[in-house]
Every structure is written in structure tokens, then in C-alpha cells.
């Protein structure tokens, strides 16, 4: 029983360790972004806004964020 509990806790930790979700979004356009091995969200968002000159709803912004490891669901 003890082995099963340890194994299930370890497997749950491993399954969630590679994914990042933006939970504390400060703007409605910040919700729904997910990243795996991604750059920090705030920095990636600022760089993409500066380089594209557009907001999160544009294709150029989404492509920039994808290059930094972030996708939107």
C-alpha cells in the first residue's frame, strides 16, 4: 500500500513537471497560454509586443510567442 501511494505521488509529480500555465494573469488577453520549457511569460510577452507592435490576438504575436515556447488554447 505504501509503495502504491509513493508511486502514484511520484507519477503525478512527473506528469505535471514539464508544463506551465499562466494562472495569475493580470489582463484578459493573458489567459489560456500554455508553455513547455518556455521562456518566462512576462518577458516573452513584452518582447513579442515590442517586436510585432501588435497585441495577443494577432497572428504575428502568436507566432512570436510560439517561438518562445508559448501556445494559446
From TrEMBL:
Keywords, ordered alphabetically: Signal
Signal peptide stretch: 1-22
Superkingdom in the source lineage: Bacteria
Full protein name: Lipoprotein
Organism name: Brevundimonas denitrificans
